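debug: dumping io for the single-chain case to check the tokenizer round-trip. Nothing else runs in this session.
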Amino acid sequence: MNTSAKQLWEEVSKQAGLQDTQKMSQDELDQQSNRNLKQKYARWFIYILIAQLIMMNFLIVLQGVNVISLDEVSFRFYTTSTIIEVFGVIVIIVKNLFPSK
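debug: decoded output
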């Protein structure tokens, strides 16, 4: 390995959190890459869920100060389904990040 390729590998491995490949088997590398990818997706889903909850709270405030007017059934359905969706996505994220063996 020439110097520039070695430096590039060290930089990439630091950013991705990879360990030295000489000491790891291909299966271990695959598991580590898979775990890193799952964590990346989990972070994005959590950001999306946070944005959705902020939007729901914003709509609750708008409904409370009579800026918008939703009928009670629609408003309850929206808040209930949003909360159920958030908990469902969190359960899916946790089950996939920490699978039972």
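debug: round-trip ok. The chain has a mean pLDDT of 80.
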